[in-house]
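Researcher: Here's my situation. A collaborator sent me these components and asked whether they could plausibly form a single complex. I don't have experimental data yet, so a predicted model of the whole assembly would be a useful starting point for our discussion.
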Amino acid sequence: MYLGIDLGGTGIKIGMVDESGNIIYSSSCPTRANDGYKVIAEDMAKLIGETLKETNKEVKDIKSIGIGVPGCVDNAKGEVIYTANIDMLHAPLAVELKKYYDLPVYLANDADCAALGEYFALNDESVKNLIAITLGTGVGGGIIIDGKIFAGSNSVAGELGHMVIKSGGEKCGCGRCGCWEAYASATAIIRETKKAIEKNPDSLLAKNAKEEGEVNGKTAFDAAWAGCEVAKKVVDDYFNAIAEGLTNIVNIFQPQAIVIGGGVSRQGDKLLNPIKEHVYKYCYGTGLVDIAKISIAKLGNDAGIVGAAFLGK
Amino acid sequence: MYLGIDLGGTGIKIGMVDESGNIIYSSSCPTRANDGYKVIAEDMAKLIGETLKETNKEVKDIKSIGIGVPGCVDNAKGEVIYTANIDMLHAPLAVELKKYYDLPVYLANDADCAALGEYFALNDESVKNLIAITLGTGVGGGIIIDGKIFAGSNSVAGELGHMVIKSGGEKCGCGRCGCWEAYASATAIIRETKKAIEKNPDSLLAKNAKEEGEVNGKTAFDAAWAGCEVAKKVVDDYFNAIAEGLTNIVNIFQPQAIVIGGGVSRQGDKLLNPIKEHVYKYCYGTGLVDIAKISIAKLGNDAGIVGAAFLGK
C-alpha cells in the first residue's frame, strides 16, 4: 500500500492506493495555508492516522508516502522550495512529516504527480514517455520520461502552460504575454466567450449566457453544439490554440502518448477529434514514424493522489 | 579513438576523435546524394580507410563509428528512416557500413550529435541536462538529458525550431505558421532586414546593404553596432524572438545549460546579454532555484563530428 497526499491551496486530500493504482480509501481536511509547514505536516499526520485506522492498516503495511505540492520542491532535501498559495519557503515538509511516521516521504510538483498517475492509469507497456496536460483555470503540464517524472535540473520543469505560442499576445499571470495558458485554459475560453457575447448580443450564445446568468467554461461549447455560429468560432479558435501547443509538444518531445485532463477534457471526442487532426497534420514525422496517441485523461481529480502515492513505486 | 561522420547534403565529413574530444584528423568528400545508401556507405568506408592510413591507426584502435544524419534514424535497426536532402528512405546505412568495418556503428540526428558534442565540450560535471540551439539557415535543436541524447520515442524529438511562438505568424518551411525558426533563424533576420531597408531607403542600413551589394545575416548587426536606429530595431526584434523561444525552453526543460551555436552566435556577448536579461526576467523560478546558464557554443562546425564520434562513448 502507498499513501498519496495532494496538498492544495484550500484542502489536503489523502488516499491509500494499492499496487494496481486503486484508491481504496480517501479523506481530506482544510489547508491551514497561512500557518507554516509544521501545521501542514501535523494535519497530514492526523489524516494518515485516521486513514490507517479506517482501513485497519498499520505503518508497516505502507511502503511510502508521497506528497504533491502546488509549487517547486527539492525532493532530495525533503523541502518545499516555494508554493504560490501556501505560506512555505524552503520548508522541510517531508523531514517534518517523517517525525510522525518513519516512512520514506517523497515530494513532487502536483502537476507532475498527476502526470505520473495518468501514466500508471494508461497501463500501456509501449508507453514510456508521456506528456500530461491539464486544461483548467490554468494549463498544467507534467512530463514523464522513461516512466519517471522529468522535473529538470531544479524541479521546476514542465511549465508547459507557460510556453509562449503567440508572442506579444494576451497577458499571462506569469508576466509573459501570449502563453499557451492565456489561450488554452478554461479562463481563456471564458474571456473569449464574453468578448463574443459583447460583439454579438443577438446570438444564441448571448441568449444562453443571459438565461444562465453567467459565463463559464461550458457556455461556448453548449451553444456551439446547439448550432450557434458565433460560439462555434470561439470554440474553433480555442481548439486551434490547444492544438498549436500540443503540436509544439509533439515536435519537442515526440512522446508515445499525450493525455488531456481538466474540466475542458469532459468535451471528449468533440475536443479530441479536431485537435488530433491539427496535430497530425502539422507535426513532424507524420507518415514516417509513429506519432503520439492523444487521449483523455482517465483519473480526473484522483490523478494527483495516485501519482503522489506512486512516487515511491 | 572514435570515428565521427557528419553526413550533409553536399559533403561527408569524417573526424578521428580522441577520448578528450580532440579531432586529431579530419577529411571529407562530396555527398553523392541521389545514388542511394550503398554508395553513401561505400564513400564513408573509403574515408575511414584513408583516415586510418593517414593516422597510422588500425581498426582495433577504433572503439566505434558514429554517423550524424540530417533527418531521422532508427539506431536500433541501424537504419536511416528519412532525410530531406539525400535520397534515403528506410535505408540500412549502419548495417551496410558494418560490412566494410566490423565495428559498432551508431546513428543519430545531426543536430542531436552537435548537442552531444557541445555537452562534452562544456566539460562541466554539474551539467547533466543541456539544450543546444543552432541559429543558422534554420533553427536546430538538440536535447541532452542525463548526459545522453533525448530523441523521444521515434528519434524525431528536439525539433525546437518548429515550436510555434507566434501562432498565425510567418509561414515556416515545415508547413506551420509562426515557428521559432521563422523568427530566430538567419533567414528570418535577412527577411526583416530587407523589409526594413525597403521602408527606410535613407537609413545607414540601406546604404550599407547597397554598398555591399547584398543583404546577409550580418547586415543588420553591422549597421546596428554602427548606430543605425532602423537596424537596431531589426536586431532588437530578432533578439526578442530568440529570447521568447529560449524562455519557453527554460520553462519546459529547466536544463542546467543552454548553448547557442550557428553563424548568429558569432555576435557573442552582444547577443547573449540582452537574451539573458529577457530569459531570466520572464522564465519560471528566477530567484528561487538555479536557472540555466546560457553560453555560446564552443565547437562550431566541429560539434557534429565530435558528437557523432561520442555516440559510442
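Model: Some features of this prediction you could bring to your collaborator: Chain B touches chain A through 51 residues (CB under 8 Å). The longest strand of chain B covers residues 23-30.
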